[in-house]
Structures are given as structure tokens and as C-alpha cells.
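Example 9 (inverse folding). The structure is encoded as follows.
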């Protein structure tokens, strides 16, 4: 009997076989580790979070997060098998659906903490902006690529139109954090599309001016910035408790589920899950977690830069920038490096919309950076394994 070390032979031309040999398995492994760590940390944070809001089931959030993680992994795997054309189509329908729901939010949405960002569907709170983000990046990258062809398609104008519609609806909610996030990712796609540097600098100037204007236009932004700049004159209970939890973890942490300070951290299972990880598993684990995100972004960008197709290159790069920037914002808030912002840590924080949307985001990115075995006109006559070299 011949020993077969892999699930699929290199000559396997089935859909699963081609996916196995063309996908980036190192990136898939890193994502799988993050999802597993997210579920593990949810079991550590769920009892304290449930107790804070009076739930009888201490593992209410952990069990739900396990379901979200499984669903997010399925979405990631299914989307990663798609072709670039299918990714464009998927992005179009997701963007239209998300924008449609965001238009309805002021009338049907659920309000919390002064914002209307969620649509209640039974026991599930859907945040459409989470799904809009990756779809927007793919669509604007498509339009930038079409504009480069010089065939009369007003790709740049359409891309900016899609972006401004998204920003306008986010500001109505209001959600400044998501606005900043998609602006950075949009700017990255704009720059990587090869536009003149003067345009990039102009867009950067407009973005900085717009960000500064939110300080004067939105009371909650003004309050958070003031709290960050003058902590001695404001209530900093949330960030102080998170800092104490991080400091209490030391080098190797208190141990799984043994965190004490986490019980006093508001939103410990969502926005401040990083502080729970730091208290229970210490500095070493915290650095490992950050390194995983760093590996995802760096390797993802490296693979994207090796692509030949302008659309695939720009879209994949924009998606990895989106993931990295969101992780950076969450960790920076936990470490009190920037003003507080309700931003989840991808694959780690509790939340159905966040988990499912991140599965979509990484699924799209992995699909775009896959090696293309159909580069051969007739795959059946291609040398065995050559398409996967």
C-alpha cells in the first residue's frame, strides 16, 4: 500500500483538492489558532460578564461564541474557495444588502450607548457595518483596477461614491471608529492602486481634517478625547480597570479562569478581551497574540504584492490592512495608547457580527491570494504539481 501523507494528492483536480494545494495553509493555520484562542478566552470571560449583567448561565457568552466561531470558520472556508470573479459578485451583493440595512437602522435599529448600529433579529444583533467593510474594500479595488484599464469606466468616481455613501451612513449612527477604519483601508487601496502621490496626499489631508472635525461635531468624541488627554479631570474607570488587569497578569499570568481584576472591567468579553488575556495568561501570551496578527498582516501583504492582477493585489492588500488596523485599534485602546473606542479584537472578542464578518474578510483575502492552477490552458496536460509550485 502506498503511503499518502496528505489528505489530497497533488494530482487531485477536485474542488477540495485544488483548494488544499492552492491556499496559503500557514495563514489558514494562524486564523484557526486565533479562532481557537477566541473560544478559549470566551470561557474565561463569560462567567464574569454574565454575572455583571445578571445572567443565570455563567457560560452564556462562551456557548454562543462557540457557535459563532464555527459559523465564521465555515464562512471563511467556503469563501476562500471562490474565484476572484465570484468574490467581486459576493462583495457587490453584501455591500448592497449591508447598505440597505444601514439605511433602515434609524427607523428599525436597536439603540445602545447613544448609537443605533444594530438590527435585532430574534436573539441575534446584526451590525451591518461589519459586513459592509470588506465588501467596500473589494468593490473600490475593483473600480480602481477598471479605471487603470483606460476603457472609459469612471472607476475612481464610482469608488469614491461607494466610500462616501458608506461614510455618510456610518456618521448617522454615529460610528466614528468604523469610519476611521474604512477610511484607512480605502486610503491604502487608493495608494496601492498606483494613483499619483499628490492625490494620496490630498486624500490624507481631507481625512485628517475630517477626523479633527469629529472632535467638534460629536459630543462623545469630544468627551473621549478629553478623557484621554486629561485623565485626572475625567472618569477613567473603564481604562483604569483594564490597565490593572493587564498589570496583574505579570509575565505568565494568573492562570486560565483565575483572573480577579477582570471582574471589574466593563465590556470585558468584547472590547476589553485583551485585558482578560493579559491577566490570565500574562505578557508572553499577549505578545504571542499580537505576533499572530502581525504574521497575518505581513504574510498577507507579502503574498498580495506577488500577485500580477491589479484587482487581486489591491483588494487582498486592503483586506489585510483592514484586519491589521482593527486589531491595532483594539489593543491600543486596551493599553491606553489612543482614546477609547468600541472596536472588537478580530476572532477574539465576543460578537456574532464581528466573527461572521471576519470570516468573510479573511475568506475573501485568502481566495484572492490563492495560487491559480487554471493558469494552464489545459490543466489535464500540465505537469503534475507544476500549477502548485
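The amino acid assigned to each position is listed next.
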Amino acid at each position: 500500500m502506498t503511503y499518502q501523507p496528505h489528505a489530497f494528492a497533488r494530482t487531485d483536480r477536485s474542488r477540495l483538492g485544488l483548494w488544499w494545494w492552492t491556499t496559503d495553509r500557514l495563514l489558514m493555520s494562524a486564523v484557526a489558532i486565533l479562532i481557537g484562542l477566541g473560544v478559549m478566552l470566551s470561557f474565561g470571560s463569560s462567567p464574569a460578564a454574565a454575572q455583571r449583567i445578571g445572567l443565570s448561565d455563567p457560560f452564556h457568552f462562551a456557548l454562543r461564541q462557540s457557535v459563532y466561531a464555527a459559523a465564521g470558520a465555515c464562512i471563511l472556508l467556503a469563501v476562500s474557495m471562490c474565484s476572484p470573479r465570484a468574490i467581486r459578485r459576493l462583495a457587490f451583493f453584501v455591500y448592497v444588502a449591508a447598505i440597505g440595512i444601514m439605511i433602515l437602522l434609524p427607523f428599525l435599529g436597536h439603540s445602545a450607548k447613544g448609537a443605533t448600529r444594530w438590527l435585532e433579529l430574534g436573539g441575534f444583533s446584526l451590525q451591518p457595518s461589519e459586513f459592509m467593510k470588506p465588501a467596500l474594500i473589494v468593490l473600490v479595488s475593483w473600480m480602481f483596477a477598471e479605471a487603470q484599464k483606460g476603457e472609459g469606466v469612471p472607476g475612481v468616481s464610482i469608488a469614491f461614491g461607494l466610500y462616501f455613501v458608506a461614510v455618510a451612513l456610518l456618521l448617522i449612527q454615529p460610528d466614528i471608529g468604523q469610519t476611521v477604519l474604512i477610511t484607512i483601508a480605502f486610503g491604502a487601496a487608493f495608494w496601492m492602486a498606483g494613483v499619483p502621490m499628490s492625490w494620496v496626499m490630498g486624500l490624507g489631508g481631507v481625512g485628517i481634517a475630517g477626523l479633527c472635525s469629529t472632535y467638534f461635531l460629536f459630543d462623545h468624541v469630544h468627551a473621549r478625547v478629553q478623557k484621554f488627554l486629561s485623565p485626572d479631570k475625567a472618569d477613567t474607570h473603564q481604562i483604569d480597570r483594564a490597565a490593572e488587569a493587564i498589570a496583574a497578569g505579570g509575565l505568565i499570568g494568573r492562570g486560565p479562569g483565575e483572573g480577579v481584576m477582570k471582574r471589574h472591567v466593563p465590556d470585558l468579553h468584547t472590547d476589553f478581551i485583551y485585558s482578560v488575556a493579559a491577566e490570565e495568561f500574562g505578557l508572553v501570551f499577549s505578545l504571542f497574540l499580537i505576533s499572530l496578527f502581525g504574521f497575518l498582516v505581513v504574510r498577507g501583504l507579502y503574498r498580495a504584492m506577488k500577485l500580477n492582477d491589479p484587482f487581486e493585489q489591491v483588494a487582498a492588500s486592503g483586506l489585510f490592512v483592514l484586519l491589521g488596523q482593527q486589531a491595532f485599534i483594539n489593543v491600543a485602546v486596551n493599553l491606553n495608547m489612543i482614546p477609547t473606542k468600541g472596536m472588537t479584537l478580530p476572532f477574539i472578542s465576543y460578537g456574532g457580527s464581528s466573527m461572521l464578518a471576519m470570516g468573510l474578510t479573511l475568506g475573501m483575502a485568502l481566495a484572492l491570494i490563492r495560487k491559480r492552477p487554471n493558469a494552464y490552458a489545459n490543466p489535464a496536460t500540465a505537469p503534475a504539481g507544476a500549477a502548485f509550485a
